[in-house]
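User: quick one, sequence for these tokens?
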């Protein structure tokens, strides 16, 4: 029955803990006092006053915040790998929630391996009974957060389980917490706002015969839960990395950093669910590539009836406590005038990194590694914005472009229009005479100019150090050659003059311009792209019918489109935003499509709203210069 003598002792611990939990329950059941009844029902009961406070909390007189935090490091089943930092992650979340996010310590249930009381350890009986009872105290105006760091599994039928400390991987139905059980408890919970955080599928561990499932795979089972927002630490087939340098899980480290204020991108001293997710998503992806050379992509799953975006942290006016080991410098106070000056002086180069070619069998498989590591190193450079590689690959697939190594000028220009990149970095890996050479090529998508950078080292040397040198050289080259690589901004009047020159004296058709705009996570008060297109059309001599009051029949050509802008990253006091604009021109009488175009741009500003509008305006400017001449017959 038992695997070894160590296993005997571990299962004995479980038996004793189980007996203690039952004993506590039986003792409480025999009490006739109201206070003792309240104490028995509460999951984290230490004193009589604790029971009274929980009872008062249930009165729903004012909104409250509740949290259940579970961390499991050591598993009794030898086939389940032990973990290093899940308990530390749960404690970090406890400090973050109580010190920064407005959670009362009495309303936070911490369940971890290192708890003295059996009723606070992550055993199956505790998770099944205590968590459910704890959630019953939550009022209809309250917020509840459930956090789990540990292993998760799927059975042969695809049903999900969270693994407690006494889980048997061969008998999940009896020894693990069913995802459906937790889902039902969260659905029945009356809270107005509910969040589930799953940090599962950890890389490494002391034993590795049994592999857990990713947070995304487990989280999908909660997708249909009413009113529930789920954050998962990684996608399917990815690992949730444990970060030895910080002695924390990578995902939880950056989530806590987000809640401590790093994600407050609009500076309103409130971190909402969108801000927390976007910051964590960005930081985890970049750090995973740089530190571990692997992909880790946090996932958000929005359940049914999730209403709006709720605040997860109210920061107040004080500085964040030192609950997360800092790896970033303090931001000095700046006046608005100083920030505007810095914004004008500091250029940002949207950069797309394409796969490196492998030249020769000796370097087979190194191209992808060099590409990943180069991305990771350059992502930390404050003067560059890196185009998301998955998004870029999706665009390349759609356009049936297979770009790597050699890129023609026309392909570079097209890639710039599709991704917003002003520069492309690609190159080759080769080996000659027992030396490895990394050759990078930096191509301008605006001027088609090309500059290079290269490094070399002994074939047996560590590749990571060689790539770091290449990335440093590439960044220095871009900074030094930026005036030659990136085209200088063209004044609007000069662009109008170019449009007029192309059209000449030809008759301009009457236009009706209607472009819908959206900034992800925020309202768009006024249409930046539509305004810019209308301005260029009027200045170029086109009659324009107002989209709101004018009739479609009064126009010869109907221009419609959609613009979307999205937060990318905050560095210091500057925010970068990526925008994509798609526009179509149709003959109002025949319905024939005359022209269609799209443009992606990146802009930087002091606020997300300003940067978003700048990005959409820039996209509209590029499209106007290309499209307006096509609307005149004979041109």
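Assistant:
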């Amino acid at each position: 029955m038992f695997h070894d003598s160590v296993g005997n002792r571990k299962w004995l611990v479980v038996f004793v803990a189980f007996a203690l939990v039952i004993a506590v329950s039986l003792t409480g059941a025999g009490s006739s006092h109201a206070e003792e009844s309240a104490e028995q029902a509460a999951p984290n009961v230490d004193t009589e006053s604790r029971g009274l406070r929980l009872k008062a909390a249930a009165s729903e007189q004012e909104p409250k915040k509740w949290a259940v935090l579970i961390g499991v490091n050591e598993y009794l089943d030898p086939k389940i790998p032990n973990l290093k930092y899940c308990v530390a992650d749960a404690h970090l979340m406890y400090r973050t929630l109580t010190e920064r996010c407005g959670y009362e310590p009495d309303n936070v249930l911490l369940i971890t391996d290192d708890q003295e009381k059996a009723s606070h350890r992550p055993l199956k009986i505790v998770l099944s009974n205590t968590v459910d009872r704890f959630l019953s105290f939550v009022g209809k105006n309250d917020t509840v957060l459930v956090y789990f760091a540990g292993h998760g599994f799927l059975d042969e039928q695809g049903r999900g389980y969270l693994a407690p400390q006494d889980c048997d991987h061969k008998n999940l139905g009896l020894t693990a917490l069913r995802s459906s059980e937790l889902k039902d408890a969260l659905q029945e919970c009356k809270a107005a706002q509910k969040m589930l955080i799953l940090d599962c599928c950890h890389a490494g561990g002391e034993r590795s015969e049994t592999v857990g499932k990713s947070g995304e795979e487990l989280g999908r089972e909660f997708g249909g839960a009413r009113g529930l927002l789920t954050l998962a630490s990684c996608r399917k087939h990815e690992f949730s990395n444990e970060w030895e340098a910080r002695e924390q899980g990578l995902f939880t480290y950056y989530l806590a950093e987000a809640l401590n204020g790093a994600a407050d991108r609009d500076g309103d001293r409130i971190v909402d669910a969108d801000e927390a997710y976007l910051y964590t998503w960005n930081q985890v992806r970049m750090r995973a590539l740089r530190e571990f050379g692997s992909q880790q992509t946090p996932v958000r799953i929005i359940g049914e009836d999730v209403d709006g975006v709720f605040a997860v942290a109210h920061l107040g006016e004080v500085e964040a406590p030192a609950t997360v080991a800092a790896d970033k410098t303090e931001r000095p106070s700046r006046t608005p005038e100083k920030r505007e000056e810095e914004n004008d002086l500091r250029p940002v180069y949207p950069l797309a990194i394409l796969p490196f070619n492998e030249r020769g069998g000796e370097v087979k498989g190194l191209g992808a590694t060099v590409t990943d590591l180069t991305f990771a190193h350059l992502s930390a450079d404050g003067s560059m914005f890196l185009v998301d590689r998955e998004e870029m690959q999706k665009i390349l697939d759609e356009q049936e472009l297979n770009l790597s190594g050699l890129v023609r000028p026309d392909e570079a220009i097209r890639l710039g229009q599709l991704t917003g990149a002003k520069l492309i970095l690609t190159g080759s890996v080769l080996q000659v005479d027992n030396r490895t050479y990394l050759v990078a090529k930096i191509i301008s998508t605006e001027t088609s100019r090309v500059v290079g950078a290269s490094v070399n080292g002994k074939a047996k040397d560590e590749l990571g150090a060689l790539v770091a040198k290449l990335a440093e050289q590439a960044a220095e080259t871009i900074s030094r050659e930026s005036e030659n690589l990136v085209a200088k901004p063209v004044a609007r009047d000069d662009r109008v003059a170019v449009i007029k020159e192309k059209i000449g004296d030809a008759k301009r058709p009457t236009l009706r311009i209607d472009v819908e705009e959206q900034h992800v996570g925020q309202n768009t008060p006024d249409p930046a792209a539509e305004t810019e297109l209308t301005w260029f059309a009027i200045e170029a001599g086109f009659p324009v019918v107002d989209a709101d009051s004018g009739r479609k029949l009064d126009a010869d050509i109907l221009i419609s489109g959609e613009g979307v802008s999205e937060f990318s990253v905050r560095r210091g006091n500057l925010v970068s935003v990526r925008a994509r604009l798609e526009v179509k021109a149709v003959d109002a009488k025949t319905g024939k499509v005359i022209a269609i175009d799209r443009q992606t741009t990146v802009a930087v500003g002091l606020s997300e709203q300003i940067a978003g509008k700048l990005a959409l305006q820039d996209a509209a400017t590029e499209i106007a210069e290309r499209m307006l001449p096509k609307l005149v017959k004979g041109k």
